[in-house]
Amino acid sequence: MIEEIIQREWDFFQKVQHIDGRASCQDDFETFYKQRKAQYLVYPEELLLSYLEDLKLYKASQRNPIMEKYAYMMETTDKDFFQSIQSQLPVIDNEKKQIIQVICQIETTMREEFQQHYPTLSSLSRNIYTNDDEKEKTSFETYLRGELMTYSSHSLYLYGQMIIHMWNQHQNIVELINQNTVKEYGYQNLEEAENALRMK
Fold first, then answer.
1. How many degrees, rounded to 5, is the angle at CA 143 between CA 113 and CA 112?
2. Long-range contacts of range 55-61, CB-CB < 8 Å, 24 or more positions apart?
3. Cβ(143)–Cβ(108) under 8 Å?
4. 20: helix, coil or strand?
5. Partner of 114 for a Cys bridge, out of 16, 27, 174, 184, CB 3.0 to 4.6 A?
């Protein structure tokens, strides 16, 4: 199921037209695969199933969730361009925005904790907050918000359940995803990756 999700996302990603032309990351399936797999290995099966259905519905309705995700991010990274395309995007209602904001608040806290424990690994990642957005530098918070805006109500509900459960269990989704990521690159765990990168 994860393989199908990633392939469907990649197909959508290939159709995204960047304002400055095709981006180099659109030719790097290996990195795309590793990063997306690291994320989806954390998701419970029910959420994966729901999100897969979202992707099928996007294709059936000839919409591109990857394009929409990046477009929503531009509300803070490129405000002028966003205003020029805003009317073409689905309107996100206030209830959905509020749910996403709560999730973002929890996850930015988790991202802060990850940075405290693994500063070297963290330095290779995005800035944390929307306030730090620049035109070519999208923050963790803004990226997360844009992605969740493309989720159906059901998928967003399941995602929120997952985050609340992790919070209550003192689990950190940022740490779990990064743990999977470093394993994709041949490290045994986060500590090994942190130490190796620190020595470089």
1. 10
2. 55/5, 55/8, 55/9, 55/12, 56/8, 57/152, 58/12, 58/150, 59/8, 59/12
3. no
4. coil
5. 174
Residue 44 φ then ψ, to 5°: -70, 160
Q: List the structure tokens of 186.
A: 């041949």
Cβ neighbours of 65 (radius 10 Å): 21
Both tokens of 181, joined, read 């990521």
Helical (H) or strand (E) element with 42: none
Say what the pLDDT of residue 105 is: 97
pLDDT tens track for 111-166: 999 999 999 999 999 999 999 888 889 999 999 999 999 999 999 999 999 999 99
Question: How far apart are the C-alpha atoms of 13 and 25, rounded to whole Å?
Answer: 10
Token pair 């797999």 in the structure block, residue: 37
Residue 25 pLDDT class (50, 70, 90 cuts): confident
